[in-house]
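Board notes (copied after class):
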Amino acid sequence: MPDVVVIGGGAVGLAAARELRGRGLTVTLVERGQPGRAASWASAGIISEPMGSDDDPNHRLMALSYRLWPAFAAALQAETGLDPEFRLPGCLIPASDDREMQRLRRLQEQNALGADAVLEGEALRAAEPALGPVVRAALRRPGGNVENRRLCQALELAARGRGVEFRCGSEVRAIRIENERVASVELAGEVIAADRVLVAAGAWSGMLAGCRPAVPVRPQRGQILALDSGDVRLRHVILAPGDPYLVPRVDGRIVVGATREEAGWDASLTAGGVARLLTAALRIAPSLAGCTIRELWTGFRPLSPDGVPIIGAGAAQGLYFATGHGPSGIGPLPGTVALLLASITGETPPIPAGSYSPARFDAGTAATAPI
């Protein structure tokens, strides 16, 4: 019997399994498809220093993760020999009209940023020559991205290397609870006895029977695409207000995303969604018009009702959650794992953990579709 069963093989599940195994626990990871091939594979992997108030739990988690990312990425590369391409070239938030200019100035003031944080005129064109004339100014912030697909591959390699057992292509039917504590995980045709279970199934977490509480996570469709950059060389990650984002990759791709659609489980690419992304991207960087489209895809973000991730102990003894990260994607990964491990081991959490607790949701009956 494993010490922990991890349900879900995305970035969070893989990273948690790796860390738990590193603590000496035996771990079985159950994944309905291929590890790292769902929302984590679809992500743009943006990692940026957050702005805002420490009163915001999302800000606290992102700030913690931003501090942890360099060591986390370096350790993963050293362990596996696979570079997850964690880079911090900086992020630009562009402004094209008076309203957006006012927003930049408010952000500059609220976050006590220096006078040189907002770039205009020649300074802006020198910093990012690919920006079009419609961009009047940009706020420069620390940040960058990780190549999320390489990250997932490295996390899987690391978890396997440490001895995590993988059950791929297996659907979890339910978590069995007896006498208010976890007893087992029911698969199709098999039952795995377990004293501890981690639900890290992303947008599918809300469909898993037996969860206490039944976390109300729902999917949000994101359409996204990648261009071959050709001669266009973006120097920064571009984070336009209300999207799109433009993320340059080491291999020459530029990732353009992403829509935010309440479409249920419909994974379709739509003409309207792709057109919106391309229109907005070309408005920001007109030179992208000559780039070829390499790939288009969709993914499902796991949304929580209040927009705050769900991390920590559930209502049954031995049950834990790490889900509901919404559009923040890969960014909060290291902080999420640190919070989760503190909950499982009883250590002091690195930041106050109450805002992320699954206990904020009432217990209920989850849907019974397989996961």
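Comment from the instructor: The longest strand covers residues 292-303. Residues 94 and 138 are 4 Å apart (CA to CA).
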